[in-house]
Every structure is written in structure tokens, then in C-alpha cells.
Amino acid sequence: MSATDLTPVGRLEKLQALSVDSASIIDNLSWLPKSKDLRSLALCNMKSLHDLSELAAHDQLRAIAVDGGTWNPMRVESLRPISYLKELQFISLVNCRVADKSLQPLCNLSKLSVLHCAKFFPRQQFQSLQAALPALRCDWFNADAWEA
Fold it and tell me: In this structure, are residues 56 and 36 in contact, taking their beta carbons and an 8 Å threshold?
């Protein structure tokens, strides 16, 4: 089954976790629940979704995944909207291509403890992020990971 409209999901007032996978027609996040109970969100393999700006209103999120599929990456404009998620502790960007190639929006997320992603960002971006958040765990902070 392929969803063409996720508006009904937005009416789930007590929703705490939501995973949307392979909703290839969905191109925006205006349908996201307005509930402050939503803590975990996974947006996976949504090939028409490029703008994450609606995420900025969900500052209660603690975990988010913006992951591409095995064969098709997610392609988003920027991680800037994620910079408003001050409670964020975990982010996954597996097979996610970010047009501006910047991890800078994550630098002020003081509660962020884990970043999972591929090496789709310049090394300087990882170095800057590590300097800003020394307690953050990310495989690409290890210099040996760049030697392969």
C-alpha cells in the first residue's frame, strides 16, 4: 500500500513515535502531528521529500532518522530545520544526501549524543562538529575511518 495523503496521521494527539517508510509521493511534512508527545520520528526512503522546514516546529523530538533506501538516497536541501530540535539526542542520516553538504546546523544541539551517517559530508564538516560537540559519537570522527 502506498500513501498519497498522511493528513489523518496529524490528528493522532498522543503519538509518541512515528515511522514513515517508502511514502514516495509525499513531498512535505505539513501532515506531521502537532502533538508535543512526539519524541521519535523516522522518515525513510521518501524520495519526493526534500524540504525539512516543517521539522523546526517539533522541538520536543529526541530522535530522528532521515534515511534513504538501499538503492535510493534521500535528498534534502539542508539540515538547518534540525537546528531547532534542542532536545535531540540521536540522528540518523543513512544514505541521506544534503544539498548544502553542511553539518553546521547540528553544532548547537548540546544534547545530541549519536550521529549515524555515511561519508557524504566533507571531512571539515565532521571536524567542526566534533569540536563543537566533543561528547558526540560518530564513526567519522575517527581519523582511521578516512584512510580506507
Answer: no
Closest C-alpha among 71, 72, 120 to residue 92: 120
| Distance separating alpha carbons of residues 119 and 97, to the nearest angstrom | 10
What percent of the chain is modeled with pLDDT above 90?
A: 74
The closest alpha carbon to 56, from 93, 96, 83, belongs to: 83
Q: Which domains does the chain have, with CATH numbers?
A: 7-137 (3.80.10.10)
Task: Show the beta-strand stretches assigned E in the chain.
Answer: 17-21, 40-44, 63-67, 74-76, 90-93, 96-98, 114-117
Strands lying side by side in the sheet with 114-117: 17-21, 40-44, 63-67, 90-93, 114-117
Tens digits of per-residue pLDDT, 98-136? Answer: 999 999 999 999 999 999 999 999 999 999 999 999 999
101: left (phi over 0), alpha (psi -120 to 50) or beta: left
**What is the value of pTM for the model shown?**
0.91
Residue (of 30, 36, 37) closest to 52 by Cα position: 30
Confidence of residue 16 (pLDDT cuts 50, 70, 90): very high
Burial of 135 (0-12, 13-18, 19+ CB in 10 A): exposed
